[in-house]
Automatic annotation (TrEMBL), chains A, B:
HTH lacI-type domain segment(s): 7-61
Signal sequence extent: none
Source organism phylogeny: Bacteria, Pseudomonadati, Pseudomonadota, Alphaproteobacteria, Sphingomonadales
Protein name: LacI family DNA-binding transcriptional regulator
Keyword Transcription: yes
SUPFAM superfamilies reported for this sequence: lambda repressor-like DNA-binding domains, Periplasmic binding protein-like I
A molecular function (GO) term: DNA binding
Keywords for this protein: DNA-binding, Transcription, Transcription regulation
Keyword Magnesium: no
DNA sequence: CTGAAAGCGCTTACAG
DNA sequence: CTGAAAGCGCTTACAG
């Protein structure tokens, strides 16, 4: 038994007694063929075991149904919920997601953008910031749909779906001030967005008459271990803060564990806030006050933008999905 | 200025004064063209801004350079390190990874397998177990390379890269017995692999003369919050265990936090072990005794298998990458 | 609602 | 080391 060639559109057409064009129409849009024809094609597909060749479809047609998602990493990323929601929703519509990792290296980003363009993806979704102006310009010049997520730059490459990190920082400052805290300390991951939140926090805090917050910078990706180290670093400060504003829930969690290990009570002796509202924030003991970003909401907007583009409709360049401070026990 | 058509192979060929075939050869294998020709092509590519169309390449050639990775989820998955390592290594060789989410639903798995076949991927990498016999048979009948990872089934669909979960369970039993623990309690996620580890643990424990371990089953994906609940459930047991063997580091971490919250000392009053050796295991306080699975090793073997297949060489159907118990403070 | 035919942009024996 | 030419399996105006 020699390897039998995989069935093609032609084989199905022959079996169903119609032309290849009609089978193609049925596969892509079942409603446009007559019901009786549809039925014959359906059984011919079943009989032959036909699986469309999407590479051929992409070449002949105008869309690849392939979406590139470029993310810094997936091992420890606040974006995972968003990426997961996007992949699920895109899959429901027959799209596939090519996931590419860029780290925080612009060369890798450039290489992965080229790969995405070579694959003729229908859209490139960026989660993480493209800071290099040349790369931004190159993408802008290209006809492909580019969606920046999780941020809201003043001048998006194409369309941005996210929220203002600065506003999130401001809102946290307002919240903590309202709770009566006096001496905040910031633990800031070295990423553009974290820094923007920190800026928003400090500006608002100072404007409201508070003292200049102290701060510690940490590397990305942020993780649990940094929380522990960040707590120990507090002893270097002239005065102990009454609340530590952490750049991620992982850092907050680690900091709480370390504080408790030396017998300090959270939030009575030291309050803590996180960012991202990961599941663990609600499960930690004490539960962690955090900022929620609705990944499903972002994913829904991505779908909406893609649909609009496919239909040739205009899309707003900046879509604000907002954020919410979630007050819990830790601050 | 009308939208200029994207440059094709022909355009580069014309510009370089060679045939399209030669440009194609250069793009795919620079060494086969004469140095002088190569140089002319190189500058023609730069001048035109040519980006190859991989959809056309996939159709004309025999490979798509597209690999499908099917995973249950990415929000909370022990596989993330492995998937990240695979994506990085595959990208270095010019491959892209289509990431598809299957949950624990066989219908979704089937749909994503069809999608992968429709895209004519060069390989399907499964991380998570395919339990449905029909699906296994269907994949086996297909000529595509199928790599099962993280497990070592007796009869792989094609090739499996992983380790024996049963052996990992046995090893943990041996380890804990050696440390003098007497009454283990297992927290077992409802997944085939976790259950296999639990089986291995119990068999070994009983064989060594220990009493039947108690056990609690929890849903997947496992997470921090389950650790807290699992700790509370300990009070329902007739006798308090001296060590809790958790199905993941997240569960272990949550259990430790909850134990400490009620003033219990870990490991003095209650020892705890995890699984997966996530970064947090080494960072937690106390550090968590866990089982390490080397994701990079799995990724390297995936690359090796893919290379061998591309070269038409034979590959062992079962590749054991092993595991290591990492002894730390928690047990 | 359906068919005939051109074309999408590559790769790859084959021949030199 | 290089070129001419066939072919990969679809989609989509165009015409009916």
């Amino acid at each position: 038994m020699s390897a039998p060639r995989a069935p093609r559109l032609d084989d199905v057409a022959l079996q169903a007694g119609v032309s290849a064009a009609t089978v193609s129409r049925f596969v892509n849009n079942p409603d446009v063929v007559a019901p009786a024809t549809a039925e014959r094609i359906r059984s011919a597909i079943a009989a032959t075991g036909y699986v469309p060749n999407m590479a051929a479809g992409a070449l002949a047609g105008s869309r690849s149904r392939l979406i590139a998602a470029l993310v810094p990493d997936i091992a420890q990323s606040l974006f995972n919920d968003t990426v997961e929601a996007m992949i699920e929703k895109l899959a429901e519509e027959g799209n596939s997601v090519v996931l590419a990792l860029t780290g925080s290296d612009n060369n890798r980003l450039d290489a992965e953008i080229n790969m995405a363009l070579a694959r003729r993806v229908d859209a490139i979704i960026l989660t993480g910031i493209v800071s290099d102006p040349e790369t931004r310009e190159r993408l802008r010049a290209h006809p492909v749909t580019v969606i920046e997520t999780w941020g809201l730059p003043d001048d998006p490459i194409d369309v941005a779906i996210g929220f203002s990190h600065r506003a999130a920082g401001e809102e946290m400052a307002r919240f903590l001030r309202g709770r009566g805290y006096r001496r905040p300390h910031l633990v800031v991951p070295r990423s553009t967005r974290s820094e923007r939140r920190a800026t928003g926090f400090v500006e608002r805090w100072l404007r409201d008459g508070g003292p200049e917050p102290t701060r510690l910078e940490v590397n990305v990706p942020s993780h649990f271990g940094q929380g522990r180290l960040s707590f120990r670093a507090l002893s270097d400060l002239e005065e102990m803060p009454d609340v530590v504003v952490c750049g991620s829930d992982w850092i907050a969690q680690g900091l709480i564990v370390e504080a408790q290990a030396v017998g300090m009570r959270v939030p009575d002796q030291l309050a803590v806030t996180g960012f991202g509202n990961l599941r663990l924030a609600g499960d930690m003991r004490p539960t962690i006050t955090s900022v929620d970003v609705d990944g499903s909401h972002i994913a829904r907007e991505v779908i909406r933008v893609l649909r609009a583009r496919a239909a040739g409709e205009a899309v707003e360049p900046r879509i604000d999905v907002g954020f919410r401070v979630i007050a819990r026990e830790s601050a």
